[in-house]
Amino acid sequence: MAVFTEVSDKDARDLLRRMSLGSFQTLQGIQGGIENTNYFLTTDQGQYVLTLFERLSFEQLPFYLHLMKHLAQAGIPVPDPQNETRSGDILLKVCGKPAAIVNRLPGKSQLAPQPVHCAAAGDMLARMHLAGQSYERQQPNLRGLSWWNETVPVVLPHLGEKAAAMLRAELAYQNHVAASANYAALPRGPVHADLFRDNAMFDGDKLTGFFDFYFAGVDSWLFDLAVCLNDWCIDHATGAHNAPRAKAMIDAYQAVRPLTGAERELFNAQLRAGALRFWISRLWDFYLPREAALLTPHDPTHFERVLGQRIAHPLTLG
């Protein structure tokens, strides 16, 4: 959530004239993230988030926006895209870019989660997966295996010998896993694919919602859970596994949707896949950055450490 495209107060007022969201009050750029331009937009009727999409196209975006609408209507607490008054469209255009306005979720991100927060996230993640089963639009995870295979050769020249060898070996392993019968048997559906702790909101211990669905796609539900475990349930300094938080998340998830045999077999492989995906994307963003007014690339070595921990210390499901 950086600012690549500057939106003026006039632009915001012009947009609000097409909506039924009240009169303009303030517009504030949001710092953080690396993909889209985001602003907090406040009117006399409420608080919203305005997003301008810098990489996703008008053709790709209906999948994400209608997924959020589908989940919101199913009772999952996610930002609900707002309709343009006359056309009824939820995909907008601002400053020549595709855009959307969603309601701003209450609360704040819990950046030091405890088991109670991890349990709440696991429970809601499982409920979100089940609610997504009836969503009919299809789009693959655009940061999945195909993208890894395309991107690794681009970032390898920037790495030292040891890191490059690890990256090559893990990519080869993930291609091997993806060709297996167990991988083909993994339950699939729409996934968030980027559900880090800063993409969830809490009011105290109560989870008030998940947001930032713009990496979503159809993938294995286990991969989605693995991404969460790799962020919510580790020691951030070392990347090491945190057993109490992980147990709370996994137990709460399985209370809603028990893992299948294939998922249990590939549990560690998907933890490694989740770490690999974000190591690659952070390498890409770090060494091939885009200009933005409030852009700070994430440190790619963090997920190198997480992947190293996942390889060296496989986890056992209870």
Describe the structure.
By secondary structure, the chain is of the alpha+beta class. The protein has helices at 9-16, 61-73, 115-132, 145-155, 161-178, 181-184, 221-232, 243-256, 261-265, 267-287, 301-312, and strands at residues 24-29, 37-43, 47-52, 92-94, 97-103, 188-191, 200-203, 206-210, 217-220. The strands form 3 sheets. The protein has a 5-stranded antiparallel beta sheet, with helices on one face. A two-stranded antiparallel ribbon has the order 6-9. Strands 7-8 form a two-stranded antiparallel sheet. Helix 10 runs antiparallel to helix 11. The longest helix is centred in the last third of the chain and has 21 residues, at 267-287. The radius of gyration is 20 Å and the shape is globular. The model has no long low-confidence stretch (mean pLDDT 94).
Main sheet: which strands, in order across? Answer: 1-2-3-5-4
Radius of gyration, Cα only, in angstroms?
20 Å
The poorly predicted ranges are none
Give the termini distance in whole angstroms: 37 Å
Instruction: Tell me the strand percentage band.
Output: 5-15%
Shape: globular
* String of helices and strands: HEEEHEEHHHHEEEEHHHHH
> Helices and strands: which structural class?
alpha+beta
The mean pLDDT is: 94
> How many strand elements?
9
Give the count of helical stretches.
Answer: 11
* Main pleated sheet: 5 strands, antiparallel
Portion of residues in helices?
A: 40-55%
